[in-house]
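Form 12-C: Joint structure prediction
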Amino acid sequence: MTRQTGTGAMKWRCLKQQVFFGVVRLSALILAAALGGLIFYIVINGFRVLSWDFLTLAPTDSMTKGGIMPAILGTLYLTLGAIGVALPLGVAAAVYLTEYAQQGKIVRAIRVGVNCLAGVPSVVFGLFGLGFFVVFLKFGSSILAGALTLGILILPTIIGAAEEALKGVPQTFREASLALGVSKWLTIWKIVLPNALPGILTGSILGIGRAAGETAPIMFTAAAFFTARLPGSIFDEVMALPYHVYVLATAGTHIEETRPIQYGTVLVLVALVLGIDLIAIIIRGYMRRKKRW
Amino acid sequence: MTRYQKEIVIKNVFFVFSLISILILGMIVVFLFREGMPIFREVSLRDFLFGMEWYPTYSPPSYGIWPLIVGSLIVTALSSLLAVPLGVLSAVYISEIAPTAIKEVLKTIIELLAGLPSVVLGFFGMVIAAPWLQETFDLPTGLNIVNASVILAVMAVPTISSISEDALYAVPGEFKEASYALGATKFETIARIIVPAALSGISTAVILGMARAIGETMVVLMVAGGAAAIPESIFDSVRPMPASIAAEMGEAPFRSGHYHALFATGIVLFLMTLAFNLIADYISQKFKETGSATL
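Section 2 - Result
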């Protein structure tokens, strides 16, 4: 009798496990399906619009025809500017945190600061960019203001990635260099940073992807609905892919008419951002396998 | 300058750079307050936060952001109902159950989901989800709380999943082994040993995921419908704080009451997410696993 309840209980326990595993697998499947479905849908609808002209011409006939070249170019300028700002600052901060800092209150405060900065909503970065770069520093709505805003937005990403890369360099490398009488700074410059470079690059690429896809931070700091000519200086407004999607899909009188252009722009944006992310992920995987230490 | 002095200088230069995040946080506070505080000459803090009417362009205007706060809270709460189970369960699958190959693929998928531009998800919600909801449930509009919450959940899941997975991964192997040795099944080990041991990390993940959802702008701007009123059902439109800021800043005359009110809304939003982040940080520090012996 007891034996029977024993096997019964065992069966029950196994059944519970099966059900649980099923639920857990399902949740993973939902995520995969969500990404897959989304990409499939975007490709199917956007592919028809895609052509050489679409990528290389400016919009015409009050945005209902023509291409998206100025928006592609604008996104390029903004993201390159953003990474140009965030990379040196982020790597320098990470070098201090991993190489110099002693564990203590200040370092703790810096870490909380980085975490909190990472959690600031993108629209608040937009407000800050408007209040500081556009109004206070009088940059106006411009590539400069937008790039700086995006730069501080991706700063925590860069700091995090650089820290991880620096921590990944074995302690013995540093000790060997220091034992040869090399100064701390030269050890960092000649030994630690070169070995951490691939990891830092991967993080930067992910940062570029993030900056390229953001809309809210550039709405009030850089983006224009339409510019008659390409930007001539860093103080000009630009068109940008994410903002172009938003504006065409929500504002104006031709929302239905420009639907194909919207799909095309979404496809270009997604291909750009996910392409960048995927490159970073592949490089990272390759590095992990190839690592000599 | 001796070599030693040079080293000290270099160290201090790096120290200054490392302060930049705190410096920027401080400047965000300064400039939000500089542009936002003047609104409180027109309206009291109490009336601003709890005022039921958001009519910034009427004359006289009324600047009550309570409907916007409620909008933000509702979409965040509803989206976490979906995102928390999905995120935590997928993390359990990745860290405890999935074979290595599937694990790698899933981690990539989650990273790509995290990388999807929010405007693309918002666009998807407008063009696909909204018409479908409208037809299926016979609604006046498909741009509503449900739609925004589902799309927001997609944005919050990667955060919840990846941080939870780190926490699960960090649970010492001996815990599992001890549990198996006592005859527990894999499910029992996960449910009673691993998840409880990782609970502080999972809580951090959930809070950060919610912070992500409450601060997300483009999705609620494009999909939530934009009605600045207290909703009566989950199929009503709302106007969460980020949506209001993003939609109206372009039209608000420079340094008008409306402009200041939007910055003040930004302050509220900023303080809310800051609180979320500090709580998450506190939990992850306080319950930090320092080794198997501490439990």
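Section 3 - Comments
The first helix of chain B runs from residue 3 to 18. The longest strand of chain B covers residues 54-55.
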